[in-house]
Each structure stands twice: as C-alpha cells, then as structure tokens.
TrEMBL record:
The chain crosses the membrane at residues 12-30, 42-65, 86-110, 122-139, 146-164, 184-205, 217-240, 269-291, 303-321, 333-353. It comes from Aneurinibacillus danicus. It comes from the Bacteria. This is Germination protein. GO terms for cellular component: membrane. It is a multi-pass membrane protein. GO terms for biological process: spore germination. Belongs to the amino acid-polyamine-organocation (APC) superfamily. Spore germination protein (SGP) (TC 2.A.3.9) family. InterPro entries: Spore_GerAB (IPR004761). Coiled coil: none annotated. It is found in: Membrane. Keywords: Germination, Membrane, Transmembrane, Transmembrane helix, Transport. Gene3D superfamilies: Amino acid/polyamine transporter I.
Amino acid sequence: MSRFVKKEITLLQYILAINGTQVGTSILTLPAELSKTAGTDGWISIIIGSVLTTIVSLCIVHLMAKHPGDTMLELLTRYLGKWLGKAVMVIWMLYALFAATIILFVTLSILRTWVLPNTSNYLIVTLFMINTYIIIRGGVQIIGRYAEFVFFFTLGLPILLMFPLKDSHWIYLLPILKEGWMPILYAVKTTTIAFLGFEMAFLFYPYLNNKKAAAKGIVIANALTLIVYLHITFVCFVYFSPDEITQFLWPTLTLVKPIEFPFLERMEIIFVSFYIFLFSTSGIPYLFFVIDTLSQLFNKKDWQLPYLLLPLFVVVFFFLKPSYEELELWKEWWGWMSYFIAYAFPVMFLFYVTGYTHWKRRQIDDKAG
C-alpha cells in the first residue's frame, strides 16, 4: 500500500490546487503588463502562454508517472544520484521560497494600498502565518480541500467584473494583429510567468488518488486559468482605452472601483478582501513545498524545525520593506529563474530520463543476448 493513501486528494482538488497556485497576483496586473507590450492583442499572448505551459505540465506528469510512488526528491535521486539529486532539489526549494516571499510581499503591498494603509507589515504577516501554519500542518490533503473551498467561495468575483461591461467599447479590440506578431510573441514571456504554479504538479502528483487522470487534470487546471485570465483581460481591454490601461498598476481593482450599490460603496475593498483567499492558495503550496523538502532532505517525516520558517517570515517582514521598484525587480528575477527551473528543467529532465531508460534497456538486452 502506498504511503500516500491516507493523504490522498481527489482529481477536483488536484485541479483546483494547481489552478489556485497559478491565479495569484498576476490577475490584478496582467492586463496592464500585456497592454504595454502587445496592446490589445495581448489576449493572443495568453493563449500561446497557456499552450506552452500545458506542454511543460504534461512533461512533469509524464516524469512522475514513470514512478508513481516517488516524490520529486526520490525521482531526482533515482536518476541523478544521491548528491546531485539533492542539489537539484535544494535549487527547487530555494526557488519555491523566493516565489512564496514575492507573493507575500505583493499581497502586503496591495493590502496596505487599498485596505490597511496604517497597519504594520509584520502584524499582517503574523495573521497570515497563523492561518498558513494550520493549513500546512494538515498536509497536501488539507491544502487540496482549502483550494476547493476557496474556488467555490470566490466564484462571485468574475461575475462582479461583468458589471463594467455596460460601459465597454468593443472597438478597442480592433484591429487584431495591428502591430504584427512580434509584440505578441514578446509578451508571451509575461504570460508564462502568470501561469506559474503548474510546477507544483511535482508536489501534488504523488497524492492524487487517480494518477491515470493526472494529465487530464493538469490540462483542465491550465484551461481554467486560461479562462480566468482571458475573462479579466477582455473586460479590462474593452473598458479602458488602449492608452488609459497602461497608466494603472492594478487595472482589475480600478475596474471594480466605480461599482456601487445602494447599500454598499468602496467595492474594491470587498473585492480585495475576498481576493486575499486567492493570494493564500497561491503562496501556501510554495511554502509547503519548502517545508516538505526540508523534511525529506534530512529524512525526518515529523520534524517540527522547518516550521520555524513561518515565524522567520514575520521577523524578515519587520525589517525588510522594499519599494515598489525593488519588488518589481524581484518579480523580474523570479521570472528569469522560472524560465530555467519551472519551464526548461522538466523538458530537459524528461529527455534525460528517456535516454537513460533506453540506455539501461539496451544494456540489459546486451547482457541477456
């Protein structure tokens, strides 16, 4: 019996956990970032980025399917050896830690700008870390259930974004390919960063109760993220003029700001308050990946020491207060890291594993002959 049986997640939880990791901070900034590079043709870049992400995602699933009972660390040490495999795993752990840190800083920046301008960073982070500890302690199964809850709990947000369409101008989308394919292809690098989170399939796959459906699940997860991004981008593109949208840092929040009801004002505060849940589903898997990796590297399953990482975040956020420009630079570094770690590595490792497997089989056949 697999050691993951008691911690299994369903296919729906697997899909929504990956989708939740992807739909993080980019949903608030993606339309403006695409507009600066590709104009209103940026929606095409989203589709291309989704296709590339899905291809790499299937490579990850194919890798894990070779040894369904293995974790990522066990798979790496199986094919790369003990020391090289652990070294690669450390690189992935640092990558996940950097990603979680950036997501948390971006979340704080948005919260302090729109909702809690006079609240200290470390107080907000302390509240985040308490909730994060409770969820992470439950393992992947609780993370999957939490992602499932958040998805259905926040289903009203996309509906809310439909209200501004009464003042939309669909003519803004025309003409298509107004500046050719080069700006669109150049903007793909922005969309591939927006789809980050798919690489957590390395983490979730061993716990999936129906591993034969893993490929279908990750395709659905990427397609769901694609629908969300296209929805947000189209609404922003037809509401704001092509020049106007580039002037906003968070056009999605600016979009909901004019919405008012007789009994409710400042809709953007309500939107951000609900969106905190989506931020958490983006950051928690990366933090769990770090803590779980530390436990595996030192071969201590119930080790409590890695959880000291969470209060350490509070200390770091007490002293470290990056400016918006510094945070954008960190996001750019994360993007460059992701090209090599999240995108290139699974494809290259799959080629290596396939070649290594064929070489081993030839050796066995030669000895048998």
